[in-house]
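Problem: given the chain below (258 residues), write out its structure.
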Amino acid sequence: MIETLSTTELKPEQEFALPKIFPATNEDIIAYLRCSYKLAEIAALAERDALILDVCDRLGVTVSDEDLQVAGDAFRLEHKLLGASETLIWFEKQRITVEDWTQGIRITLLTNKLKEHLFGDSVDAHYLSNRNDYKRVALSQILVDDLTNALKVTYAIRESNASFCTLALLHSKGKKSKENGGFVGIRFLKELMPEIAQAIAEAKEGEVIEPVQTKLGYHILRIEKWFPAELSEIREQVLESLFLAWLQANSASALRAE
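Solution.
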């Protein structure tokens, strides 16, 4: 009779007890970040927060106890921490203290206030000067390695009415476009690679663009829909882009100073 793994019983001398897993220490966590090559990413976020706190202190940007209370209440509601017991269990799961949690909320509030302090008055002017950058486009693409295949795919779409979706599933080397039948999402023009942004800037909805070469390969692009850029709808994104550019500039300055 042939025994299977599901029916075979181990003899006492064969039994093996798995070792108990203890909670990771701070040192264990840092060691994991190092060997998984994630430490630089976390360090950059910590440096960003340190810069924000320092600049807020110098500029006198603060948050009140009332601000903290309102933000804390909103946080607990969002995460369904409606009672003291649920909140304490969540703190334990996250391995943080009340002070850590409060500081996280404080940094978020200070970040938003600093954005407004630095760029709130210049958002309108920046938007008017760079309005086309904030046009949004629903975009599909098929990414291939060489120009010959790119031209074949383009011909199949234009002349043989082949399905863009089917060709993307069959030929696209881009993971997202392959998984979604070519659709890569809704993007601001300024978020796209410069070659692609320039190629589609004047294209009409439904138009298939000639293969565009980038460092990734050849992109066959189709414009699904254009969304007009209205500042009232995208003010936060404009503010965020200005703030991120400021952070990057200051990080670069810090590196040059060293």
